[in-house]
Amino acid sequence: MSRPTPAVPAAPAVRSVLAESDATRARLWIEILARQFPELIEELAPGRPGARSAPGPLDPAQLAARAERDRDDRAAARWNEQHGHSVVGGGAAPIRLHVSDALRDITDGVVELEEAVLDRLGAGRPRKAAVPERLARLTALLGRIAEHPVLASHVLDECRRMARRCSAALGEAESLIRVRGRCPWCDSVSLRAFPAWRAVLCVNPGCRCTEPDCGCGTNSSYRHTWRETSWTQLALDAGVDADEIAALVDEAEAAPAGLRA
Fold first, then answer.
1. What's the CA gap between 25 and 242, in Å, rounded?
2. What pLDDT band is residue 119 in, cutting at 50, 70 and 90?
3. For residue 176, with 0-12 CB atoms within 10 Å meaning exposed, 13-18 middle and 19 or more buried, which class applies?
4. CA spacing 20 to 30 A to 102: which of 39, 71, 130, 163?
């Protein structure tokens, strides 16, 4: 008579490395949002001056650096515009209207995000609170959020979106990072990483690819873009290391503009 097979205890749930990474990155974007959100309220204060003091004279190296930043900022602005994320410009009234819209969007977004998180975690409905307190409560839940990959990804996307919206309303441009290697389409050293969207694009205005679903062939303001899922192939074509691209983006996202002194 065979002996019964002993019962094997169920293995504990294995935390997803990707979900933990998403939760960690979400924490950074929450920190940016918590730091900058009060500035949106200040921007709406009556009589707040919109112009900043003029900078002093620049030496040739500083002028060259500014020109490089301006080129990258223009490329970033084009990328934002073609993906529906352009910032309203103009005088004081449009800027304040844009700030007001951003304030409302972010406030509603934080409330909805906290409600969705608590619902997914089975923790009921959140107590009414101001945005900074809600962000602090979301931060405290990131450990539990990391146990749910889909939820962690959603929280990261929303926190990043709202932090970017906040930074844009405050007039902070998103910088592009130079990527080593040559563009596979135009052979120029014009590859730039876009950390906020984890994408790489070619900033050469004359670059055109032959992919039928890319807009750079028909729209002069469009820039060919490689999403994160295409970085391995881009690295092969450009003669660089895919890990190097990821490291550049990760490093920039770990210390975004909103957290720099």
1. 20
2. very high
3. buried
4. 71
